Every structure is written in C-alpha cells, then in structure tokens.
Amino acid sequence: MKFNVSRRKALWVGIPAGLLLLGLIVALLIWWQLPSLDRLTDYQPKLPLRILAADGQLLGEFGAERRKLVPIADIPKPMRDALVAVEDADFWTHPGIDLGGILRAAVRNLTHSGPLHGGSTLTQQLARDMYLTKAQTWSRKITEAVLAYKIEQTLSKDEILEIYMNQIWLGGRTYGFAAAAQRYFGKELSELDVGEMALLIGLPKNPAGYNPHTRLLRAKKRQAVVLARLVAVGQITQEQADAAKAAPLQLRRVGRLSSIADHAMEQVRAEVVARFGPESYERGLQVTTTLYAAEQEAAQQALRHALFDLERRQPYRGPEGRVELPAEGFDDELDRAFAQWPDLGELRTAVLLKVQGPDAAELALSDGQAVTLKGSAARPLAKLQRGAVVRLLPQGAGWALGQVPEAEGAVVTLDPSSGQIRALVGGFDFTRNQYNHATQAYRQPGSAFKPLVYSALIEQGAWAGTQVSDQPIEIGDWAPRNYDGRYEESLSLREALARSKNMVTIRLVQEIGPQRARAWAARFELEEERQPLNLTLALGTGAATPLQMARAYGAFANGGRIAATRLIERIEDAQGITIWKAEAPPEPKEAVSERNAFMTAQLLSGVMRDGTGARASQMLGRWDLYGKTGTTNDAVDAWFVGFQRSRVGAVWIGYPTPKSLGERETGGGLALPVWVATMREALKGIPTDPLAPPAAGLTQVGEDWFYEEFTGDAALARIGAAATAESASPAASAASAASEPR
C-alpha cells in the first residue's frame, strides 16, 4: 500500500504536534498540583548540633544530617565551575530541563530494559531531593521536569546552585560539599586541592558507591573520570590531572576513631539535649567547650600510643577475621573488609594477600598500598590463610604486626584556678566502649593517693625532714612490703614520698588514724565512703575517678582550693546568637590551707626531681612540675597525677575488668609518658613558674619549710615507733594490699 507524499508529510507533522499538545496539557495539570516552593525560597535545612573547642575548631557533630551551610559567595569558584562542568554543562542557559538530554535518555529507555535513565539537570536533581521520591517511573520524571521549570522561574541560578551545593547527599549522614570536605578530608572548601575537589565532585552520581572511606578504589576511578572532564573543558591542564591522580588521598580517618574527643562530646551532647530537647539535633546549635583542641588531640594520641605499646608486649592473638578473595579482581572484597574492620588511627587494617615462605608476607592496606613484611615481623602470619584480616602499626620506615588494644585508659587535664577542663579522653575507642573512664571509672589510685596522707600529717606539724620508720610491718595475716624489697631504719618524708615507700605511709596512717585519714581525703572531694577504713588506705586501695584525682591535685596547685569544673562555655543558635552561657563560677572551695598546699607540693616537687617522676621533668626539660606515680597491687591500675601551676592532669591505664597489666608494668612506665606528652602541648610557650610560698604562716630554715607554730623542737621528729596494732582498724588484718612500684 502506498501513501501519497502530502498525506505522509501531514502525518509526520501531526504526530509531534499532537504529542507536544498532549505534553503541554499534562504539564499544566501537573503544574497546578505542584507543591509550594517555600522550602526553597525560605531555605531552612536541618543543621546538626556542632561541638567546638575553645579556639573554634570543630570537634564533631550530632544529628541525622551532617551539614554546614555555606553561602554561594564562600564556595570557591573553581569548585562551582567543576560541578557544573561534570553534572550539568548547560546549567547557566537551560530553563531547568535539558531537552537534548531528555531526548537521549528517552530513546535509551525505549530501546533498553532495566532502570530508567534521565538527563537530569542540577535543578531537576534538587527538585527530586527536596520534594520527590527516587522511584524510577515516567510519572515521577515528568513531575520532576515540570517542578524544575517552576524552580527556575522562582529562583536565580546562583540561588539554585547555592541550595544544591548545601543540600545534596554525599554519603553517610553528610549533606552538602562543605560538610563532605570536613568528613572526608578534615578541610574547608577553600583548602581542597585539585584531586580532593575532583573526588567530591564525583560523589553526587553515586554517593554510596563512590564513598572513599568504604569504596576507595571505585572512588579513585570516578575521580579520574571527573579529572578527564575538567581537562576537556579547559578548567585544569593534563599535567594537573595526572598529578592529582598520582597523589595519594590523605583521607580523614573515620569510623571508630573519627573524633579526637568522642567521650567529651557525648557528655556535652547529653547536657545540651537535657537543656533544649531533641530538637537540638536540627536547630544548628553551636556549643563552645572549654577544651583546647591541640591539648585534647595530644592527650588522645598519647593514650593510644601507650595502649599500642602495651599491646606489643602481649602475645599475638591472631587475625580479627577473614574474607574470601578470588584469584584476581578482588577490589570489592577488599572494600568490604576495610568497611567491616576500619582503621583505628595509626593501627591500620591489612588483608593478607600472599605468604611468601616463613619470613615474608604480602598485604594490602585500605588506601590501596601494598606492604611486604619480612623476617620476624612476618613469622606470625606464616600459617594464616589468604584473606586474613590483621593489624599493622608504623615502625620506623616500615610496618610491624599489631592488634587492637584490650586495655583502656583515661586522661583529664584542667586549669586548677578556673576548673575549666582542657582535655578529656574517656577511653581508647568510643564505639567499642561508651563508658567514660575519665569521669565514671572508680579505680584504686595506688600510691597516687599518698600525697593526701602526707598533707594530713603536715597539718599536725610534720615537715619534709620528719623521720619515719621504714621497717617491715605485720598485722595479723597482713604483711605489706616495699616494692624494691629494701627497708631503712628511718626515712624523711621527702625521701619516703620520692621513693614511694609503703612502710612509711602505713605508719603515717597509723599515726593519724584511718578515720581521720579518710576524712582528710574527703576534703579533696574524694568520696569518703569509697575509701577503706583500715591501714590499706595508705596504699591507695580506695577508689577515685581520674577527674577526681586531677581535682584533688589541683588543690595543691591552686593554694589549697578546688575550683568547680566545667566543660561548656556557651551555646549559640544557627544565627550566632548566644542562648546560654556558663555562669560565673562560685569561689573555689578550700580543701586545705595555702601553706599546707605549698608544703605538700614541695614534697611532690622532690618526687619530680629525685624520685619516681624524675623522668617526666627530664623529658619536659623543666623543674616547676609536681606529681606522683601510682601502681596498685599486681599492676592492675597504672597512674600518674601531676601539675604545673597552670595545668593539672591525671592519667589512668588498666583493663575494664580489673586484671594485671603485666608483671613489669608500672605507673611510671605506662601512665607517665602519656602525662608528659599531654603536658608538653599544654605547657607549650609557658615559662617556668614554680609555686611561691604564701605570705604568712610559714618559716623557712635552709631549704625546709615549717608551720610557724611547729618550728624547731616542736616539729615531729619521728613517727611510728609508738604505733601499735590497736591504732589500726580491726579490718586491717582482713585487707590485702601490696606495694606501689614506681
């Protein structure tokens, strides 16, 4: 059958005209049903609760959506141009829809099965994100196109681009490019290099599939596509693209060790939500804490290093898991392994690829790096199967086998005069254990408790030269010992505390009486009911938290007074208006007199010059430090508590379920280096400033200080010889305690 030419032309003209008319009718019907654009014209996104250090550095965020709202003028132009070049080249000229792209997608959808494809513009993506579902249907796509056109009639191009770049989902709970730059690189948008910018620009296409934390190899391939596009449009040179592809991505490590202050942030979060309710997570509240970011990070890193070092001295427990790896093309399997077992800071996850005999093994790291272990470092892997998931730690220029620490720890530092907390580390891994060991863990302080006993005796007239018997003591079945196994006829208080002699401290509690010693500890705000009513109290067998111990020592640094602690300074709303501010703190509470604090501090200075803490003074190269080690029976708890006039800090290390840290582990070996590393940052730039004696109440003879009323013969010359078993608590014989080593 033949058509005449005129009828054929009419048919070809009529079909498109009819389709166009039908499309216009459908579009009008949809237009009348479109939602209001108030959500765009008055854009008020959900903004997370942000926690800041005292210097304004972001510590972390809470909320379903992690977002940082950035005006278009503050988004670097190269990034705006790159996004448009990759996602929507005709953005500045089209009316919200790209007819050519839609036509190409329609042809593809009519000729292929599977999910529908669309030539979505940035405006269409925004319309879908703000108002529609992601269902792959014709009706949704038509509605999306009409809505995009309406948006273009209402908002300017800059307004559309600004909302898009702040609103779009980019993986995890991250929305907007500013938040993504922080999440993936720990940077502001203006700080990104070409490679980092390209990686972020590649995320909108598939945020989950190209997430560099879980799909690094795929993310690098997508980055290469973006870089090629930027070369094609002339935004960067081929040389810049090649350099960006070759450069390793310095990702901000996330997962279980993503924040430098997880436990502190949780404490802040709970307080803010208790004050402002669940809407705190969406209002864009900004909380400024008392924490110093550099000091907080130094404390956290020092504690982790100490726990890693402790773990190196433990037997190897074997791999954490295993993944099946095909003979080749196993990138997806590696990505899944690294997502399930994320890096823990410097403790890197590695997957065993090949064992090359008893002394060599090849492994893959999460950043794509290949590592070969040789010699003794590789021997524990010799019998493991391919795909075993292990841990590696940097060692010199290479790597050593490691494992996740089982022990825990805590660090807390504060300003003794104001009570402001400057660092608060509650444990190794918040995800593993949300328990805040700095504020909640009541542990035996060991010999770190001894200065409180010495302070009590000083109040009765003792001084640094007071002689006390160091001979062995036996009361019933209790026979404590000195750690070094040596016993002197007598020692001065100065020597006894510096050498952490147990017999001397026990005799001091005998002289004072356990009840009075407990009451004296309570003056330093240690809970009296948690201290034993027997002579073992002398060896620190009671219980205190690291924060309590820091505050107690803070009294010696602050003229005998204990300041109320605080962690939050102020809270601002999303507009920067202060809606809550910490009240002026109350006057510090007097624990002991200024002269008592000064004389006790002089004994602690001796510990740092000639005793168990001398290494700290040597490492820091300053002699205005005061402190004491603490190690409990069987090395279950390791402590160091000390101060300089401007900062006091406490460090504790132990297992969550108490058990020995190891026969040779001590407070001086484990906790002291953590304190030193933290104080090195805390005291940076602060000149040496030893404590000065009070204006009245003391007399100095040579290098020694005395209470004025106890000068000379009135001073106690010897304690302990007259002490009897009757002066001890009846419970003493039932107690069991050993010595504190260093």
Automatic annotation (TrEMBL):
The keyword Metal-binding does not apply. It catalyses: Preferential cleavage: (Ac)2-L-Lys-D-Ala-|-D-Ala. Also transpeptidation of peptidyl-alanyl moieties that are N-acyl substituents of D-alanine; [GlcNAc-(1->4)-Mur2Ac(oyl-L-Ala-gamma-D-Glu-L-Lys-D-Ala-D-Ala)](n)-di-trans,octa-cis-undecaprenyl diphosphate + beta-D-GlcNAc-(1->4)-Mur2Ac(oyl-L-Ala-gamma-D-Glu-L-Lys-D-Ala-D-Ala)-di-trans,octa-cis-undecaprenyl diphosphate = [GlcNAc-(1->4)-Mur2Ac(oyl-L-Ala-gamma-D-Glu-L-Lys-D-Ala-D-Ala)](n+1)-di-trans,octa-cis-undecaprenyl diphosphate + di-trans,octa-cis-undecaprenyl diphosphate + H(+). Residues 409-654 form the Penicillin-binding protein transpeptidase domain. Residues 316-407 form the Penicillin-binding protein OB-like domain. Pathway: Cell wall biogenesis; peptidoglycan biosynthesis. InterPro entries: Beta-lactam/transpept-like, Glyco_trans_51, Glycosyltr_51/Transpeptidase, Lysozyme-like_dom_sf, PBP_transglycosylase, PCB_OB, PCN-bd_Tpept. Its main location: membrane. Residues 56-230 form the Glycosyl transferase family domain. Keywords: Antibiotic resistance, Carboxypeptidase, Cell inner membrane, Cell membrane, Cell shape, Cell wall biogenesis/degradation, Glycosyltransferase, Hydrolase, Membrane, Multifunctional enzyme, Peptidoglycan synthesis, Protease, Signal-anchor, Transferase, Transmembrane, Transmembrane helix. It is a single-pass type II membrane protein. The chain crosses the membrane at residues 12-34. It is found in: Cell inner membrane. Gene3D superfamilies: Biosynthetic peptidoglycan transglycosylase-like, DD-peptidase/beta-lactamase superfamily. SUPFAM superfamilies: beta-lactamase/transpeptidase-like (SSF56601), Lysozyme-like (SSF53955). Its EC number is 2.4.99.28, 3.4.16.4. In the C-terminal section; belongs to the transpeptidase family. This is Penicillin-binding protein 1A. It comes from Roseateles paludis. The lineage of its organism: Bacteria, Pseudomonadati, Pseudomonadota, Betaproteobacteria, Burkholderiales.
